Amino acid sequence: MLKVYHDLCREIDREALVQLARSKHKRWILQTLETVPARKATLASTGQQQGGPSRTTVHRIIDAFVADGYVLERGGAYEVTEMGRLLLSSYTEFRTVIAQALDKREFLRWLPADLESFPVDALADSKVIRNAPKQPHNVLSAFTRIAETNFGRFRGITTIMSPTLANAYYPVLSSETQVSVVFPDEILSQLHADHEFIDFVKEYGFESYIRDGQPARDSEFMFVPEPLPVHLAICDDTRVILAPSPSTGVPESSASAIDSNDPDIVEWAATFFESFRDKGRPPVRALLEQKMAQGSDPQRRAGD
């Protein structure tokens, strides 16, 4: 939200934006004049009828707007300038961001601060999925249910080992869907130490994952050495489910996610995903790097 505010203030005067936010009369006058030019007397009369500013206030605000370049006088009537329209649209945009921040606060409060590029203003039509003490798996269920939909391309980020997710996405991996998933390295270590996972891989015909370090069919698994801040599912560049991961400190009982078809959120999610995919390594390479790192650790060698 602060980033949006600072970006807006690069284009318009910070103090003017603050004053517009504080004064309903200033907003009313700009909005009215943006609709149609009017004389001061007409504005004052309309204001009295609609519970707006008094005649004295109208004259004072109009004169100030003219002096600052937000309004100009033409043939006795006053109209909003391009600068005035920019000020009003900036206020409207910031108000939208604030409204969405309040409405989606359960989700946004756990979103890492370094994800400041997230388009908060695009959340208006997004659905919020919330866990609750008596329903602690609502978010996980949202990620599993999306696997039941039809799509030709799937991209995802996951940071947990979950048999529920594995079973839900097996049909996706077995289909013709193009799949690309990014995991943190710690998941790879946990998976290859889990005999049930190895049996699962063998049972469902993914022997090539173990043998060659690549999953079967048209799928790509990539691993990064750093913690991942979100769980993410992107379907066909049209739908996104996004939730902060446990690394953010969010308690499972109060975790939340957003489900969105907004193009700006989809675009942001795709860019975010690709930034980690570009840093990822296939499983065998990631395992070899882990083994090499362990072999070069004097304390680990001494312990062994």
From TrEMBL:
Keyword Nucleotide-binding: no
Transmembrane segments: none
Pfam families (UniProt xref): FilR1_middle, HVO_A0261_N
RNA-binding as UniProt keyword: no
Residue ranges occupied by any HVO-A0261-like N-terminal domain in the UniProt entry: 17-99
Protein name according to UniProt: MarR family transcriptional regulator
Positions of the Methanogenesis regulatory protein FilR1 middle domain: 136-278
Record's keyword terms, sorted: Plasmid
